[in-house]
Specification:
The structure is a single chain. The protein has 345 residues and is α/β, with parallel strands linked by helices. The protein folds into three domains: 87 residues, 3-Layer(aba) Sandwich (Udp-n-acetylmuramoylalanyl-d-glutamate--2,6- Diaminopimelate Ligase, Chain: A, domain 1); 197 residues, UDP N-Acetylglucosamine Acyltransferase, domain 1 (3 Solenoid); 34 residues. The protein is built from four helices and 37 strands. The termini are far apart. InterPro entries: Hexapep (IPR001451), Hexapep_transf_CS (IPR018357), LpxD (IPR007691), Trimer_LpxA-like_sf (IPR011004), UDP_GlcNAc_AcTrfase_non-rep (IPR020573). It comes from Thalassotalea euphylliae. GO terms for molecular function: N-acyltransferase activity; UDP-3-O-[(3R)-3-hydroxyacyl]-glucosamine N-acyltransferase activity.
Length: 345
């Protein structure tokens, strides 16, 4: 059942100042456009500013310069989006992924299970695995031999954590993710592919969040490493021997090829593709659908995806692209002729 808090309680929790009646109780969040008179909303993007005057929310989290325009109660702070995040945490009623240790869980006698660990139905904990205090292992999860799960880490259902994988504390991993599967390593010989055993591990730091159906491959020889504080979206592929620095964010459907090194505090947009064996500096941003084929040595924003356009325009552009080589040769010839004429004059 959802908890309710007064606006004064919420203001203290998020570091805001109350404008209006602080005794009003709320138990849920909504957008400005959809909020009812028992819900709290927020304004973090100026393009929704016109919704402020008509919102039915009982209170809105706003910046100081927008407080006077708010026709209802307000929680005033410099960063309303962070206020929204903190309020959402306060009002969160997401259930635990597991409670207690279910009778159908299969736990090897040599596994080490900490205090307050919860393990869901039909989960399998193999020999030598270690589950630290307060961790939650959801239903149907597989924790391989000698894998380590840190304190207070939460795994949702049907996650596979292969042998010797190490996951830090306070992590959150969504359903159906696979960590530590074999990397794509094969040697061609006499017309056949010969599998190369993947002998490395996956090492994941603290406070890492990984979305649903994402795959993190184990290293071929050295380890695949994900640094502290990283956030990785759904359906991301991280290949063997990739090293990702602290606090880097990777959006959905991105593919990171083998042996890539990504710096700290990078942001990688959705559906980006990063070529193998390159290095990305700290504080780099790749916008969505970027194709990264070479290393990046300097921080900054990089793009390569082509936005959608009417098919007729695309066909015209594509036709011209096919003529680029001919056009380039003509330009070179014209430049040569022009230079010769200038010399003669």
């Amino acid at each position: 059942m959802a908890m309710s808090y007064t606006l004064t309680d919420i203001a203290k929790h998020i570091g805001a100042t109350v404008k209006g009646d602080g005794n009003i109780s709320v138990s849920s969040l909504a957008t400005l456009a959809t909020a009812k008179n028992d819900q709290i909303a927020f304004l973090a993007n100026s393009k929704y500013q016109n919704q402020l005057k008509d919102t039915q929310a009982c209170a809105v989290i706003v910046t100081p310069d927008m407080a006077e325009q708010c026709q209802t109660n307000a929680l005033v702070m410099d960063n309303p989006y962070m206020g929204y995040a903190l309020t959402a945490k306060l009002l969160d009623h997401t259930p635990a992924s597991a409670t207690n240790i279910h009778s159908t869980a299969v736990i090897d006698d040599s596994a080490v299970i900490g205090e307050g660990v919860a393990i869901g139905a039909n989960a399998v904990i193999e020999a030598g695995a270690s589950i630290a205090d307060g961790a939650m292992i959801g239903a149907g999860c597989f924790i391989g031999k000698h894998a380590q799960i840190g304190a207070n880490t939460k795994l949702w259902s049907n996650i596979s954590v292969y042998h010797e994988v190490q996951i830090g504390s306070d992590c959150l991993i969504q359903a159906n993710t696979v960590i530590g599967a074999d990397g794509f390593g094969y040697a061609p010989h006499q017309g056949q592919w010969h599998k190369i055993p993947q002998l490395g591990r996956v090492i994941i730091g603290d406070r890492v969040e990984i979305g649903a159906s994402t795959t993190v491959d184990r290293g071929a020889l050295e380890d695949t490493i994900i640094g502290d504080g990283c956030i990785i979206d759904n359906q991301v592929q991280i290949a063997h021997n990739v090293v990702i620095g602290k606090n880097t964010a990777i959006a959905g459907c991105t593919v990171v090829a083998g042996s890539v090194k990504i710096g700290n505090n990078c942001t990688i947009g959705g559906m980006a593709a990063i070529n193998g064996h390159i290095e990305i500096a700290d504080n780099v941003v790749f916008t969505g659908m970027s194709m990264v084929t070479k290393g990046v040595k300097e921080s900054g924003v990089y793009s390569s995806g082509i936005p959608a356009q009417p098919n007729k325009d695309w066909n015209k552009m594509n036709a011209r692209l096919r003529k680029l080589d001919v056009m380039a040769k003509k330009i070179t010839s014209l430049e040569k002729t022009l230079n010769e004429q200038q010399k003669e004059s």
